[in-house]
Amino acid sequence: MVKINGRELNLAGNTLAAYLKTTDFDVKRIAVEKNGEIIPKTQYETTILQDGDCLEVVSFVGGG
């Protein structure tokens, strides 16, 4: 199980990019932290999710 934003999901073995494609996140406007480290967008396709990983996905919102 992989914990993403507090929810446990059965995503072990999938790439981060594959997971993000199933969500409403705008990849251009997010940052992803995996186990305490920021994952560069260039590594989303090669980052494999593993049992016990903990991710936080944060969306950037503009305004003024």
Verbal overview:
This protein is mainly beta and about 60 residues long. It has a single domain, classed as Ubiquitin-like (UB roll), CATH 3.10.20.30. Helix content is about 10%, strand content about 30%. It contains one helix and five strands. Strands 2-1-5-3-4 form a five-stranded mixed β-sheet, with no helix packed on it. A hairpin with a 2-residue loop joins strand 1 and strand 2. The chain is globular. The chain starts with a strand and ends in a 5-residue tail after the last strand. The mean pLDDT is about 95.
Question: Could you give a quick summary of the protein structure above?
Answer:
This protein is 9% helix and 31% strand. The chain is mainly β. It has a 5-stranded mixed sheet with strand order 2-1-5-3-4, with no helix packed on it.
Write the layout of secondary structure elements.
Blueprint: E1 2-4, E2 7-9, H1 16-21, E3 30-34, E4 37-39, E5 54-59
Parallel strand pairs: 1-5
Antiparallel strand pairs: 1-2, 3-4, 3-5
CATH superfamily: Beta-grasp domain
DSSP helical segment count:
1
Q: What count of domains describes the coordinates?
A: 1
* Second-tier CATH architecture: Roll
- CATH-assigned fold name: Ubiquitin-like (UB roll)
Low-confidence stretches: none
Quaternary assembly:
single chain
Q: Output the radius of gyration.
A: 11 Å
Fraction in helix: under 10%
Question: How is the biggest beta sheet arranged?
Answer: 5 strands, mixed
Shape: globular
Please identify the top-level CATH class. Answer: Alpha Beta
Look at the structure and give the mean pLDDT: 95
Q: Report strand %.
A: 25-35%
End-to-end C-alpha gap: 39 Å
Read across the widest sheet, the strand sequence of neighbours is: 2-1-5-3-4
